[in-house]
Amino acid sequence: MDIVILKFGGTSVTSFEKKQMIAFYVKQALENNEFPVVVVSAMGRFPDPYATDTLISLVQKNEANDNKVTLDLLMSCGETISATIIANMLDNLDLHAIPVTGFQAGLITDNNFSNANVIDFDGKFINNLIKKKIIPVVTGFQGITKDGFITTLGRGGSDTTATALGSFLNAKRIDIFTDVDGLMDSDPDIFNDAILYEEISYDDAYYLACNGAKVICSKAISYAKKKNIPIYIKNTLKNNTGTLIH
Ligand code: ADP
Ligand code: ASP
Ligand code: MG
Predict the structure, then answer these.
(1) What are the beta bridge partners of residue 109?
(2) Distance of CA 163 to CAs 54, 189, 231, Å?
(3) Of 111, 135, 160, 170, which has fewest CB within 10 angstroms of its CB?
(4) CB–CB of 241/234 below 8 Å?
(5) 213 Cα to the center of ligand 1, angstroms
(6) Is the CB of 155 under 6 A from ligand 2?
(7) pLDDT in tens, the chain (246 residues)
(8) Which of 184, 141, 147, 180 has the alpha carbon at shortest distance from 163?
(9) 16: left (phi over 0), alpha (psi -120 to 50) or beta
């Protein structure tokens, strides 16, 4: 059974309607004989209670003095809450799922707190779940250093979780579900004449991501490129074809 990564961004894990769509995509994958590994971001945007920026605002009064270890653990909490809620929702629909933290998923990073890089993978835990056909709902954005400190992968880093896992698990594709139709030539929230790329190369998408197209995290693209795994960016509510990055 091919593994597919289904990643849902912060605005895709909030309303009842969007959560129903998550269940729809999980069922659709299973019906197509694909095994879904779900990755989720923290719910919503500032000032929603568990959004990453809300969590940061709880302590970040003096950036220069902030303890990076503490800040990363705090920032990582939003994804943990989100994964538990989504796993619980799927499980209640008899789609056997459990929440999995970035550290349980074996995403080992360097010590570059707040913008850590995944340097190794310990797949025992997650592969065991997959073998038992239990759907892992993995917290995006989180990693762990070799010496056991919790890290975060940089803003927008749940995309990196999705592509790093996709690469380590040899996924057939990585679906990034978000609140716009795909990758466009400008920000559709600002420019209503923004044009959708139906297809784009890894390198061109990387260039756009480095220059403000935050719909995909630039760091995420390299993991998919290395293994030649296609990334699809789609609108959670539309079930559209979106943008294919390959
Ligand atoms: P998610 O929580 O789903 O990861 P993000 O906020 O990280 O969502 O990324 C989606 C947002 O990226 C969109 O709401 C859109 O406003 C913004 N965006 C900026 N530039 C682009 C672009 N070139 N193409 C598409 N979306 C863009
Ligand atoms: N929640 C993290 C952030 O806001 C990661 C992500 O959404 O991809 O940056
Ligand atoms: Mg994002």
Answers:
(1) 118, 145
(2) 26, 25, 8
(3) 170
(4) yes
(5) 6
(6) yes
(7) 999 999 999 999 999 999 999 999 999 999 999 999 999 999 999 999 999 999 999 986 666 566 889 999 999 999 999 999 999 999 999 999 999 999 999 999 999 999 999 999 999 999 999 999 999 999 999 999 999 999 999 999 999 999 999 999 999 999 999 999 999 999 999 999 999 999 999 999 999 999 999 999 999 999 999 999 999 999 999 989 999 999
(8) 141
(9) alpha
Hey, where are the domains in the chain? 2-245
Q: What is the CATH number of domain 2-245?
A: 3.40.1160.10
Torsion angle (degrees, nearest 10) of CA 240, 47, 117, 233: 10
User: Ligand 1 pocket test: which of 53, 178, 208 has the largest number of ligand atoms within 8 Å of its C-beta?
Assistant: 178
The residue type at 234: K
Residues around ligand 3, an ion, CB closer than 5 A: 9, 156
Q: How far apart are CA 21 and CA 9, in angstroms?
A: 13
What pTM did the predictor assign?
0.97
